[in-house]
Amino acid sequence: MKIRIIGLPEEAAQAANLLTRTFDVIEISGPMPCRGASRNVRIYAELRLPQPAE
């Protein structure tokens, strides 16, 4: 699954970090500035649901 996180740099980084605690992370991009005069950044994450323990 793919998720886009948008927020202030500190918020977006914290949200990306929280995703690593819940999902199996395939890839997380670095922060990219949003268009215009926004102070927000975008972070893209590709994740998969964790496999249940057997």
TrEMBL record:
It comes from Nonomuraea typhae. It comes from the Bacteria. This is Uncharacterized protein.
